[in-house]
What does this fold into?
Amino acid sequence: DIQLTQSPSFLSASVGDRVTITCRASQGISSHLAWHQQKPGKAPKLLIYTASTLQSGVPSRFSGSGSGTEFTLTISSLQPEDFATYYCQHLNSYPITFGQGTRLEIK
Amino acid sequence: EVQVVESGGGLVQPGGSLRLSCAASGFTFSTYWMTWVRQAPGKGLEWVASIKKDGSDKKYLDSVKGRFTISRDNAQNSLYLQMNSLRAEDTAVYYCARVGEPSIGDAFDIWGQGTMVTVSS
It folds into this structure.
């Protein structure tokens, strides 16, 4: 099974900050990676697919990069509505797995 | 509006059974793979099972193989998860999600609000 490790697991930041979350895969997954955002008590929401393509309707301050085993999600200027938990997910093969999540909180 | 809505969660005793349903609307259900993902209280997301457009191929998480069965009824635009021999560790919110087209890398692009399953005596 492919393991995904996100870092950091917890991040405290301020509105306007630039933040980066890293997702490392235990083996190469090409660009078969997605990022989801989840707010408390809500369903996940797809932000990015194929590692770097922004889902329709997602603000351009979100961006993704990487391929192979190392990936990043960057938020260029944090907005109040961005404080949430972020998960990476691989879609390379079964079983599909998620990273453990990165909780982004307001400093 | 494109949406999926889960139902059928509840409290069940260990060893018991439960059937979850997911009603899809706003898109051509029969042309998409569908999937179930769960989230234990305070924990991360865990993929559970996926089913092909016509139901001819099914994939399962190892820990649910032989206990859970994913199925669909394309005429009713519905997805199901039959859960048998339930264990305390199956306690979670269960989400139904649409598997997007290959053009978006099969990402899970539409999620329901989830239904809570609690396994406890």
Summary: The two ends of chain A are 36 Å apart (CA to CA). The longest strand of chain A covers residues 19-25. Chain A touches chain B through 26 residues (CB under 8 Å).
